[in-house]
Write a structure and sequence with these properties.
By secondary structure, the chain is of the alpha+beta class. The protein has four helices and four strands, in the order αααβββαβ.
């Protein structure tokens, strides 16, 4: 009686088939990770916009009580004036690395600007204050928020995606 060699008759995957499947999975995983990065950027931008609006509300409440806007040179300096009455904790940027930091500038007691640099162009840039605090007597961390455009935001090296609020 002849002995059958069953290993020759068994059907399995060839090495080439396995490599093709692994390559396809690798491409799909790369595409997924790229999209997750974009979603994270958008989430950080949404937080920045909410933070700027929250601090603006606190600054306006400060003005209502004191008759002038906070006279501090830095965003961090707002913490001592706004906490705990107007704002429990001064929000910080998720990355907190240049250029992704929050800025505060003031001019006398009638004007102020709170700004954040966004990672991507957002619809909210159509409704921000567009203040240029780099010119004309402003003190503090001055920022030109008047250059919001989709083309400027597409260049990562520029800081043209400025979401700013304030009193101009």
């Amino acid at each position: 009686m002849p002995i059958k060699k069953s290993f020759r008759l068994s059907r399995g995957f060839t090495l080439v088939e396995l490599l093709v499947v692994i390559a396809i999975i690798g491409v799909l995983a790369t595409l997924l990770l790229l999209q997750l990065g974009v979603a994270r950027q958008r989430a950080r931008d949404a937080k920045r916009i909410a933070d700027v609006n929250q601090v603006r509300t606190a600054v306006e409440l400060y003005f209502d009580d004191n008759g002038q806007y906070p006279q501090v040179a830095t965003y961090a300096g707002l913490a001592s004036l706004l906490a705990p009455k107007y704002l429990v904790l001064l929000p910080l940027d998720a990355l907190n690395l240049s250029p992704f930091v929050y800025n505060y500038a003031y001019n006398g007691n009638t004007k102020y600007q709170i700004s954040a640099t966004l990672e991507q162009w957002a619809q909210a840039l159509n409704s921000d204050a567009d203040i240029n605090s780099t010119a004309g007597g402003w003190t503090g961390q001055t920022v030109d928020g008047s250059k919001d455009s989709k083309t400027d935001c597409a260049t990562p090296s520029t800081t043209a995606c400025i979401y700013d609020q304030g009193q101009n």
